[in-house]
């Protein structure tokens, strides 16, 4: 059996469980949407950032929204690979841009689940890999994996890049890291993982590792850096232009000061939007899981660096606090401690935990798309 078919055969149970989880969540959302008189397709393909991506796919860059308070939200904040692929799909298939975005995201989510399985299997074994993929599909905010968003695409590139690093395929890892960097701003975490893995390889071999690790390291940040520099050139500030665009969205890296102020104000004002509370809880749990991952599980260096950079960007960035759980969605290694704990638990206890997570995931997905008044 070819190697790729053998890996797909091993991953089949995990992929089946993941598909069942997301299909059930989508069905629950669709039933509720029809109940309240809304279109499930519109919710998945046109909500929040999905609308920006499909507009870029249809018309290119150049849209800016100006607000009375002086804010200016430019579509240059959105990285180009996903809308470019959406445009390509819509030009080949007789579907609208929103539908093309959904098809692309669903395929990317499946590819990501396959890559996540292989990475986890190599680190912790097959049972933990199956459970981790299921947990990833049952996260409270996993509804994003079935929306026209970029997280599935970036996670797919990230998972396969990490697998390439674990199997010492340096050029493939660098190419996938470059594509991840063209997908999302926090895709730079994949390039950091490649650079860390190459540095470790060179140190172990005292610099005599051949040309492939060097080439992979050089290729890894190209995607992210090229778009940042392109936006900078377009805005007349090569190094600062992209970050000025992010400022217009109130997004900046301030080592968590803005997030702490938001939490302080939220606590002081009393009852608030449920989504903000969930964002705080999910982010706090993510930080705790990273500590367990680093101190207890001790995964390979590229996996640890990739996850750590994602957590750092999420916690240290200000802006849309309610979006922090979504920024952590590609950080699938955070689930490794929980997956290992469930594999060691009694079957009855594990089933109860999974059932509880499923109920939370399906219910929260309905909430954020049909009831919440905040951005996702």
Give a brief rundown of this model.
The chain contains 18 helices and four strands. It has 376 residues and is mainly α. This is Membrane protein.
Task: Give the strand tally.
Answer: 4
Sheet with the most strands? 2 strands, antiparallel
Going across the biggest sheet, name each strand in turn: 1-2
Indicate the percent of residues in helices: over 70%
Overall average pLDDT: 95
Q: Helical segment tally?
A: 18
Structurally, the number of domains stands at 1
Shape: globular
Structural class: mainly alpha
Order of helices and strands: HHHEEHHHHHHHHHEHHHEHHH
Q: What is the first-to-last residue Cα distance?
A: 43 Å
Strand content: under 5%
Rg measurement, Å: 20 Å
Organism: Streptomyces showdoensis
Membrane topology: Multi-pass membrane protein
GO biological process, one term: GPI anchor biosynthetic process
GO cellular component, one term: membrane
Word description of this protein:
With 376 residues, the chain is mostly helical. It has one domain (3-370). Helix content is 72%, strand content 3%. The chain is built from 18 helices and 4 strands. The strands form 2 sheets. It has a two-stranded antiparallel ribbon with strand order 1-2. Strands 3-4 form a two-stranded antiparallel sheet. Strand 1 and strand 2 form a beta hairpin. Helix 4 (81-92) packs across helix 5 and helix 8 (170-181) packs parallel to helix 11. The protein is globular and about 60 Å long. The model has no long low-confidence stretch (mean pLDDT 95).
């Amino acid at each position: 059996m070819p190697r790729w078919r053998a890996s797909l055969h091993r991953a089949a149970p995990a992929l089946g469980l993941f598909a069942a989880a997301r299909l059930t969540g989508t069905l629950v959302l669709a039933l509720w949407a029809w109940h309240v008189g809304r279109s499930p397709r519109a919710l998945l393909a046109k909500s929040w950032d999905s609308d920006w991506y499909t507009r870029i796919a249809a018309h290119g860059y150049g849209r800016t929204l100006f607000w009375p308070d002086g804010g200016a939200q430019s579509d240059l904040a959105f990285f180009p690979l996903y809308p470019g692929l959406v445009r390509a799909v819509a030009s080949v298939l007789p579907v609208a841009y929103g539908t093309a975005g959904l098809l692309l995201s669903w395929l990317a989510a499946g590819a990501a689940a396959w890559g996540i399985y292989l990475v986890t299997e190599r680190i912790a074994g097959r049972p933990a890999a199956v459970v981790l993929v299921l947990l990833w599909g049952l996260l409270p905010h996993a509804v994003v994996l079935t929306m026209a968003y970029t997280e599935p695409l970036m996670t797919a590139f990230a998972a396969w890049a990490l697998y390439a690093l674990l199997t010492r395929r340096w050029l493939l890892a660098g190419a996938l890291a470059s594509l991840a960097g063209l997908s999302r701003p926090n895709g730079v975490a994949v390039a950091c993982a490649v650079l860390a893995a190459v540095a470790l390889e060179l140190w172990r071999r005292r610099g005599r590792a051949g040309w492939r690790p060097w080439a992979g390291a050089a290729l890894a940040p190209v995607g992210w850096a090229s778009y940042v520099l392109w936006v900078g050139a377009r805005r007349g500030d090569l190094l600062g232009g992209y970050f000025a665009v992010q400022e217009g969205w109130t997004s900046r890296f301030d080592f968590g000061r803005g997030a702490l102020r938001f939490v302080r104000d939220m606590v002081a004002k009393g009852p608030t939007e449920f989504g903000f509370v969930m964002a705080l809880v999910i982010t706090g749990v993510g930080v705790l899981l990273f500590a367990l991952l680093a101190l207890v599980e001790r995964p390979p260096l590229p996996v640890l660096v990739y996850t750590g950079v994602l957590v750092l960007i999420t916690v240290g960035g200000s802006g849309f606090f309610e979006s922090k759980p979504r920024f952590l969605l590609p950080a699938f290694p955070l689930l490794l401690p929980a997956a290992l704990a469930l594999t060691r638990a009694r079957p009855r206890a594990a089933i109860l935990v999974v059932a509880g997570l499923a109920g939370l995931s399906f219910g929260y997905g309905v909430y954020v798309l049909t009831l919440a008044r905040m951005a996702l």
